[in-house]
Design goal:
The protein is mainly α. It has a domain of about 50 residues. Helices cover about 40% and strands about 0% of the residues. The chain has 2 helices and no strands. The protein is elongated and about 60 Å long. The relative contact order is 0.08.
């Protein structure tokens, strides 16, 4: 199952409904399907995401180390 499959589906026309009050998904499921397919194709065309950059320093982990040690003390 891909992310968002169980999410509510919504389709708005922002120029006609700037307050996003009228969900057109149920009255236009074909349009919604086309838009979702187009979005997925565009996402695939972007290719894989680049690796995340870890630009932190050793000092940046001090909070995590503190919390891990604190948890160890509680368990002992």
């Amino acid at each position: 199952m891909s992310p968002g499959e169980n999410s509510p589906k919504i389709v708005f026309i922002f120029t006609d409904d700037p307050g996003r009050r009228i969900n057109l998904f149920s009255s236009n499921p074909e349009l919604a399907g086309d838009l979702i397919s187009e979005m997925k194709e565009d996402q695939k065309a972007l290719g894989p995401l680049p690796p995340s950059l870890n630009i932190g320093r050793e000092q940046d982990n001090s909070l995590y180390e503190y919390l891990a040690n604190r948890q160890k003390v509680k368990l002992d």
